[in-house]
Amino acid sequence: MGDTAHPERANRMRANDDVGRTFLNVNPDHSYPVLRGLASPVRIKILRLVQKRGAINVNEIAAALDLPQSTVATHVKILEEAELIDTRVCKAVKGQQKICSARYREIVIRLDAEGVDTRDDHVDVSMPLGLYTSCDVSAPCGLCSLQGIVGVLDVPDLFLDPRRMGAALLWFGRGYVEYKFPNNAKVLKAGIDAIEFAMELSSEVPGTNENWPSDITVWVNGVEIGTWCSPGDFGDKRGAYTPHWWKLEGSQYGKLTRWRITDDGSYVDGERCSDVTLSDLKLTEHHSVRMRVGIAENAKHPGGINIFGRGFGDHDQDILMRVYLARKTPA
Predict the structure, then answer these.
(1) Nearest-angstrom CA–CA distance, 167 and 280
(2) Nearest-10 Cα torsion for 146, 148, 154, 156
């Protein structure tokens, strides 16, 4: 996780979830090597290549990018200095070779001015829809990427298909999907004033029906936060970002819902939904924040769920977790 012994790392934050996805939040005032590392089209291509291909050597990078080996070696050295890649030297058929691998999947450069009131400070993590770490769903169900349907429809076991990583829309009748977010406040050794989750949701019915209520519930760290009743499954117009290949008879968009947990209770879109508080979540005891969303077994209106990710629906975003960091007490 964090490494305060390194002067650059002290001003950066790195967090992992259990599916190997890593996040880097950068303070540009103290991380010039990182900014330098990113300030080159060639180095961006190298980062994308090692993220996609996994551990590869400098010669393989040069061949893939059609660049001289010496040019690639120079750029790799800069990425090493910025700690944006990991490298190791090992034996080759002739001599030695340098193997490069990616450290981060997502990099956020924070432009918060120094000295701002930390009550307003927050850390965001955007979770791609397909990166759930557990699930238990029932038909009707399915997954879509931006290019097409993943596998076949109404087969719950396909929710374990590795291709789910590219999902931008998913739906099911009963059950849940659960995500593990990095507990950034724990990494930063900071208190929390509030934690929020934002996601675009709707009910699920074959075809669409704007009058199809569904009780959608959210749990955090195993604690039920509350339930929001979706009014329907919307198909009266094409979603603002929904791909044109997606049939008009299918779910087009949802409602952007915001779930907020504070010291005095939990809220959905500003309305109190339960008495669950931050202390009930035991955030200081866990390195991750587990967020589950789905249809509870005792739901009064079990009308299914659609979850819209980036590239589908009316809001071009994945599931967002925002952690509001507590104000630091002056020394």
Answers:
(1) 32
(2) -60
Q: Fill in the amino acid letter for 304.
A: G
Task: Quickly list DSSP for 23-70.
Answer: EEEE-TTS-HHHHHHHS-HHHHHHHHHHHHH-SEEHHHHHHHHT--HH
pLDDT, tens digit, for every residue of 253-294? 999 999 999 999 999 999 999 999 999 999 988 889 999 999
Q: Which of 175, 82, 181 shows the shortest CA–CA distance to 127?
A: 181
Cβ neighbours of 14 (radius 10 Å):
18
Angstrom distances, CA of residue 85 to CA of 32, 197, 303? 16, 30, 46
Listed as own residue / partner, the contacts of 259-262 with beta carbons closer than 8 Å and 24 or more positions apart are 259/196, 259/197, 259/198, 259/218, 259/225, 259/226, 259/228, 260/194, 260/195, 260/196, 261/194, 261/195, 261/196, 261/220, 261/225, 262/193, 262/194
Measured CA to CA, the distance from residue 52 to residue 80 in angstroms comes to 18
What is the residue type of 36? R
pLDDT single digits (tens) 26-44: 767 667 788 888 999 999 9
Specify the pairing of strand 255-262 against strand 192-202.
antiparallel
| Residue partners of 3: CB distance under 8 A and separation at least 6 | 9, 10
Q: Match 């704007």 to its residue by tokens.
A: 210
Side-chain-side CA neighbours of 75 within 13 Å: the count stands at 22
Global pTM value? 0.66
pLDDT higher than 60, residue 11: no
